[in-house]
Amino acid sequence: MTLKQLEESTAYLKHKGFDAPELGIVLGTGLGKLVAEIENPIEAHYNHIPFFPLATVEFHTGKLIYGTLEGKKVVVMQGRFHMYEGYDLIDVTYPIRVMHQLGIKNLFISNAAGAVNLNFKKGDIMLIEDHINLQGGSPLAFKNVAEFGDRFVDMSEPYDLKMRKKVEAIAKRENISLQKGVYASVVGPQLETKAEYRMIKLIGADAVGMSTVPEVIAANHLRLPVMAVSVLTDECDPDNLKPVNIAEIIAIAGETEPKMIKLFKELIKEI
């Protein structure tokens, strides 16, 4: 990755009308309906944006959408990139750097995850307070990283405390049940074994998924405040583990999505 590549990607989007967005949003698996709320949308498919990776997951549509949401200019990633698709972590986080170049001041992230904390139930929303990186790498581990920011990035509070407090207040006001916890990110795409779920719980995670952590690390590198939520789509009880049903996971994400959209829209009004 070079600054020249980032500048070319950004120039293409500006030419299409992506004008000074205030907020970036990354939508997770089964969580794409927020885009229907965007006014005056402009779309840019990933395969048309210079140096962008291509989305390969069937339920990730693969485009950036720019427009207005709750009176603010936003750019939304409908479809994200994962290590399990064969990308490296620099590819996975490239869109975050492009959105930052466009001018975003805050970043929202959503994902679908499995509940390892058995007090949490499928259909719950979890506000991510901290994370554990189990992906075996870093999006900052490349030679010329110092051209883009500090090599050694502080991660004592990777998820913006002010936005987290606002989300908690909104959830209380809107009567949305909100869990809080630690998200563990694995490579995938295979789901976890019983022993792996036990390990993930033992090391302090409340939920597990295959995304989000690389984007959050990149955002912290850019000093970009970030807020992230997990929609919990299955309960990962190693003592009662049943074969995974991907269709059911997508369906539960879809059922919970309106509550997530409400949280996001109310937070957009307040930042």
UniProtKB/TrEMBL annotation:
InterPro entries: Nucleoside_phosphorylase_d, Nucleoside_phosphorylase_sf, Pur_Nuc_Pase_Ino/Guo-sp, Purine_phosphorylase. CDD domains: PNP-EcPNPII_like. It is an enzyme of class 2 (transferase). Keywords: Glycosyltransferase, Transferase. Pathway: Purine metabolism; purine nucleoside salvage. Its EC number is 2.4.2.1. The keyword Transmembrane does not apply. The purine nucleoside phosphorylases catalyze the phosphorolytic breakdown of the N-glycosidic bond in the beta-(deoxy)ribonucleoside molecules, with the formation of the corresponding free purine bases and pentose-1-phosphate. Belongs to the PNP/MTAP phosphorylase family. This is Purine nucleoside phosphorylase.
